[in-house]
Amino acid sequence: GTPPPVTSSTMTNVKVINYSFGEGSITYEFEITDENNNLINGLLNAQAKVAALTDKGFITNRTEADKNGVADNVHIGGEATQATVGAELTALADGHYQFKVPMKGVNPSTEGIVWLRVGGNNGIATSKPLVVNKPEGTHSTTTDSCYSCHIDYSTSPRRHASYVATGMDSEVTFVEGCLVCHGSVSRAVVNAEGFSTGGYATNTLSKIGHINHQDFTKDFSVQNCTSCHVEAPKNINVAGPGCIDCHDSGGVPGAIIPSNGADLRIMHESKAGITERQAIRAKYKLSLSTPVKVDDISTKTDHYAPTGAAAAVTAPGWCTTLTVKDTDGNVFSIKDNFNYSSPLVYDAKKPVVYAGAYLHSYENGSLVGRPGNRTNYYYGYNTDGTKNICHLLTDISAVNANYVYSARVTFSTAGWMEYDGNQRYQSNGSLRATGYDGSMGISFTAYSDVVNPVTTQKVSGFERREIASTNSCTTCHNDATAFHKNGAFDEGGNACIACHDNGMARTSAALGAGFGPMVHSWHWGNGAKVGEVKADGTQAQTANGAGAIEASTSCVACHEKAIDLGKVPNQYILEPGNKMTSPVTANCYACHTSDSAKAHMASNGGEISVPSVADWFKQPTSESCAVCHDTGRSSG
Predict the structure, then answer these.
(1) Considering all CA atoms of the chain, what is the largest pairwise distance in Å, rounded to the nearest integer?
(2) What is the domain extent for residue 351?
(3) 420 and 337 within one domain
(4) What's the mean pLDDT in 24-40?
(5) Is 25 strand, coil or helix?
(6) 619: which residues sit within 8 A by CB, 6+ positions away?
(7) Which end of the chain is flanked by fewer CB atoms within 10 Å, N or C?
(8) Are 518 and 468 in the same domain?
(9) Structure confidence by residue, pLDDT tens digits, 15-30
């Protein structure tokens, strides 16, 4: 038979059977069950909100007390609870209720977002907010666009996480749930008698989106409208919602006007240079030839990179060729488009400001060092404008691994600066007054095939275990520029590993050695405390942080697939001071730096900052993190 109803719950589920608007009232009929699907009796609390759709957008107007003997004369949508005068919460049967509330701002023709939440009394848990109805196509952003960064805002450390609403089919309705209170018109907008003509909250959702997201991290631009807006914003009136968030004239918000084909996003993105940078990114591609060992590098090069001076050196070395092509397959001449100005400034006729290459050592799908001297290389151009780069054998430190070249070519655009001028603290604590170098260009990175330095034969194509999606960085770092050192955000940070790889001994373990640990640390760990200097001279502790995203529930913000710890290469990561850390531990320790966490890792074979050994990249580690922490395991 049917189990008897209960009178308390740790979870309250709401199923709305129907709702209806009357003249000045709304009535809901619904059923509630507990975590075990048992009907719940004894409900005393319920709360209703209606964000009415007006020519200015969604408004949930509050009921206000008299002002100077004048009664509240603004009624748009509204909110009420069981305590509202005239409200009736009636039990129709076990777990089955009717909630009828007076609401002066609604009538049978009202259209808007209808919201309900119940519980929070007598041991009955408060239900999740429920969006009972939502007009389609009435706003220009979506839950999906917000959740590309805020993977699950209900777990966020930010405010109002418990207000994340669900729809009638249990789908997340993040935007609609927020709009109920943070509607299209601020509560601060008042009429002549002093009554609010706006919504429930002072900050509109539009203002939160536009203002709170400005400069929240490096290389994010709120003017890249397409990061959040999947459809054209629905107004072209500067007094309208959205525009006045930034262009605040102090006036009353205007009506929403259909866009008539005009799209303000293009104007904003063009003004910020984003459209131009995206076009360059889409138009060109860089490739590298398979490295070759030559007896005489003067057959390929005629200049020395550190000085730019002519130099014909007849000695053996390793070489590769950089080729840039456009989408039609035409070679783009690096030679004819290279900017040699000093100081280096933007020149529309000479957009290429950097074209260099590194020679790496490569083992087991990882870059494990840079045997070729970083700066002491030679270059020369071929007749088609492609660029040769060579390292003398005498400038290469032999490594017991294969060789691969990486290269970068950077285009400048209007507004480009060699250094961005923003003072910033580095991870070693020192202050860098000139800021990020080469950070404003559009950079292209390529990796060559892998060769055996002894036999000189190709071993394989360049391969790397990739668990970050191609757009995992550019979802947030969306302004289409490079980060620094001509390293770009595109393709999941593939450009970064040329320097931030397993073998480059970058940054201590506590601040994240290697690429993965560095990313974890600079978003959620100690690295997030290393920031730029603010206008008042203080240090921005979280200039790189992702504090609004709850890290442990948001892995898919960057990782497109489940994280398979068993597939992490069994290979150490180097640190400064001739030290190394085992790989899974390095990633975990980037955020979990307490003594107890370190002891837990060490007791399961993890090693942090131990002395490095010769051919460290061929030594197996003994960490066993995957036994418990792999996806699907007891503590996955």
Answers:
(1) 97
(2) 273-499
(3) yes
(4) 97
(5) strand
(6) 572, 613
(7) N
(8) no
(9) 999 999 999 999 999 9
